[in-house]
Amino acid sequence: MTNGQTIVDRKRSNGDHSHDIKILMYHRIVDDKNLSHRYPQVCVHVRDFRHHLALLERWGFTAITFEDYQLCLEGELNLPKKPVILTFDDGYVDTFQHAVPLLQEFGTRAVFFVLGNQQISTNIWDEKIGLPRASLINEKQILELHGAGFEIGSHSMTHAVLPALSREQAWEEILRSRALLEILLNAPVKSFAFPYGLADTMTKKLVKDAGYSIGCATYAGRPRFGTDPFDIHRIVVPGTSDTLGFALRVLAPFEYYSWLRWKTKLLLFAHRNGKRNGQLLANEIIEAADIAKEQE
Ligand SMILES: [Zn+2]
């Protein structure tokens, strides 16, 4: 195959199944400068977000979804020359209001990770770490997103710390959220984002066994897309990302740097607390993640 050979095919013929696809992680897109200034890790101002989309366009990136990526692997689609995947966690109303019109204006595809439990209408899990309360989108808005062509992935039932749960509880969070979202959308849900980006061997296996084909972490995995589809590393785009900050994340191998820094912090944190890495309690992992994020 010569003319029609895709990037995927060529990679396969080299025996290499990995692809250098940057996965960007956003949470809230807000129109309040105070929020983006005070909580840059979760709030990006809408003007800055527009700037990010304009930069991606200027640099020649094409946004795809995980579903698109699967189709590329199956030979149904050609992988674009410079693919990028934009992900939005938790399903915030302000993201729905501010990001979606811009994504549509730029023709940018994206993935939204939402909870399976639609009774949870705000980010109650963030209260203990001092983040402001924010509303989550409802079933109608999730359907609207899906109808507009965005991919909907699961973010568990209740935003639980999965590695801290029993196998049965974790299974419930992972499988039930998929089932409920599939009933709502009347379509398959194939991607999963680990709450807090926290995944261990058991939770990754449960996500795979539950029928997902993609599992997204934050810092948990080796920063290489495609080597383990259940350990996909994402890059946090904070509200403080100016052109240079965004360029570093998108154009440079920033994920290696952030992953190494994350691992180092985790080990130091464990050392300070007199525990080995594998014995970190869930709360301590969250605290360590929080410290790492604050210092991003
Ligand atoms: Zn989340």
Structure description:
The strands form three sheets. Strands 1, 4, 5, 6, 7 and 10 form a six-stranded parallel sheet that branches. The radius of gyration is 18 Å and the shape is globular. It is built from eleven helices and ten strands. The chain has a single domain, classed as Glycoside hydrolase/deacetylase (TIM Barrel). The N and C termini lie far apart (45 Å). With 296 residues, the chain is an alpha/beta fold. The protein binds zinc ion. The site of zinc ion has 5 residues, from loops.
Summarize the structure.
It is built from 11 helices and 10 strands.
Secondary-structure blueprint:
Layout: H1 7-13, E1 22-26, E2 28-30, H2 33-38, E3 43-45, H3 46-58, E4 62-63, H4 66-73, E5 83-89, H5 93-106, E6 111-114, H6 139-147, E7 151-154, H7 167-185, E8 191-193, H8 201-209, E9 214-216, E10 235-236, H9 243-251, H10 254-272, H11 282-294
Parallel strand pairs: 1-5, 1-10, 2-3, 4-5, 5-6, 6-7, 8-9
CATH topology-level fold name: TIM Barrel
The SSE order reads HEEHEHEHEHEHEHEHEEHHH
Shape: globular
- Provide the residue-averaged pLDDT: 83
Distance linking N and C termini: 45 Å
| Number of continuous helical runs | 11
CATH hierarchy class name: Alpha Beta
Could you give me the name of the CATH homologous superfamily?
Answer: Glycoside hydrolase/deacetylase
Strand content: 5-15%
Percent range for helical residues? 40-55%
Helix-and-strand structural type: alpha/beta
How many beta-strand elements?
Answer: 10
List the bound ligands.
zinc ion
Q: Which residue ranges are poorly predicted, with pLDDT under 50 across at least 5 consecutive positions? A: 1-17, 276-281, 291-296
CATH architecture: Alpha-Beta Barrel
